[in-house]
Structure formats: C-alpha cells, structure tokens
Specification:
2 domains; hydrolase activity; Sda1; globular; 240 residues; 78% helix; mainly alpha
Length: 240
C-alpha cells in the first residue's frame, strides 16, 4: 500500500523537476537572445545603450565572486555575459573586464566547468582580436588558445565555433599567438587529408570523420588566409 502511495509522489516530483529544467532552459535561451539583440543595437548606436550595458556589466561583476566559489558549476548566465561584454567592449570603457577574465582563467582553468571554460576562453580571444588586452595578458591569451587546441585534439571541442576562435588567432597581432594558430590549422588540414585518403575501407569512424571534415571545409577561407600569414611568419623568422 505504501509503495502505491509513493509512486505518484515520485512521479509528481519528477514532473516538477522536468518542468523546472525546461523553464530554466527557456530562460537561458531568452537571455542569450536578449544579449544578441542588445549587441546588435549597440553596434549601431552605442551611446543610446550605455546605461543598459552598464547594468549588465554590474551584474557580471557581482556574479563573479559567487562563480569563483564554485567554478565547477555551469553558470551559463555569467558565461554568456562574459562573451557579450567582450563583443561590445570596444564601444565602452570596461577597464577591468580583461582582469576578471584573465584572473578567472589563470586561477581556475583546470577546475572550471567545460562550458564555462569555453566561454571564458572565447571572451578572452575576442578581446585579444580587438586589441583590447594589455601586453602582459598575452601570456594568458596564449595559454587559453593552447587549452582550446588541446581539447580539440582530445575530440572534446570539435565544433565550428572552436575552430573559428583558433583560426582567428592567425590574424592576431601577437606573433606567438599567430604562430600557434597557423601551425595548428596546417597540421589539422594535413591530417584530415591523410585520413580521407587512407580510410576508404574503414567505416568504424565515419561519423566522427564527417564531423571534422565538415568543420575543416567551412574554414577553407580562414586557412587560405592562414597560409599567407604562415609565409610571412617564415620570412620574418629568416630575417631574425
């Protein structure tokens, strides 16, 4: 009799949990859409949205200390705010945004939730691509890039966004970052071609190869630019 009573209670709890998860997911999606809309508007008329953006920045700073206490949590809202602020940072004076991001990566990169780490690395690379990082933070940017490459090689991050961030390093002002990105893409492209030529009779890894091949295909334009950058790098090395 007791078991008959407990089952509907458990079912109700499961339903409530599922409903809560769905509501949280929708809230996260709505928040991302909201940030994308504000980002679009800021690019057109930044001064009109200074107050709204300042509120987002204040929210980011307030959340930062809480996130540090438990970096293993996903903290999606905080992560999305970091990327959002990095994208529009050139329009406002976020003087310590880079300090928040670099400090977080420097101290918690190995303990961080994978989703959160990916977003923080992305925000740092965006800041670097806009020349908004000070010279003494280049080391952090380099380490962040190496983290992304390592995770790609381990088949953890093999999506288009990851490749785009790494590829953007080929056009970076930092010689070291440019070098790491260029040689990574050269090595990856050569490996893809080798695997494609030697895997006609091997169907075990077809799905994984198709995914990686698709990623490589979409970045041909970046790789073409990277090849030109590589030649320039080699010329500079010869001069030195």
């Amino acid at each position: 009799m007791a078991s008959n009573i407990q089952n509907p209670i458990k079912e109700d709890k499961d339903k409530d949990k599922k409903k809560q998860e769905e509501e949280e997911k929708k809230a996260d999606e709505d928040f991302v859409k909201q940030l994308e809309l504000v980002s679009y508007k800021v690019r057109r008329t930044p001064e009109l949205y200074r107050k709204e953006v300042t509120q987002y920045y204040s929210e980011f700073k307030q959340t930062f200390e809480k996130v540090k206490e438990n970096p293993l949590q996903k903290n999606k809202k905080f992560a999305e705010l970091a990327v959002f602020l990095a994208r529009i940072a050139q329009f406002y004076k976020f003087e310590i945004l880079e300090q928040y991001v670099t400090e977080f990566l420097d101290n918690y990169a190995n303990q961080m939730n994978p989703f959160l780490r990916k977003k923080m690395v992305a925000s740092l690379m965006i800041l670097r691509s806009k020349n908004l990082l000070k010279p003494n933070t280049d080391g952090i940017a380099k380490r962040s890039l190496q983290i992304m490459i390592t995770l790609y090689k381990k088949n953890i991050w093999i999506d288009q966004k990851t490749i785009n961030i790494i590829a953007s390093g080929c056009l970076n002002d930092s010689y070291k970052i440019k070098l790491i990105s260029c040689f990574f893409l050269v090595a990856t492209t050569e490996l893809e071609e080798y695997e494609s030529d030697s895997s006609d009779d091997d169907d075990d890894n077809d799905k994984d190869k198709r995914e990686k091949k698709g990623v490589t295909k979409k970045t041909k334009a970046k790789i073409a630019r990277m090849e030109r950058e590589k030649k320039n790098l080699q010329k500079n090395q010869e001069k030195e």
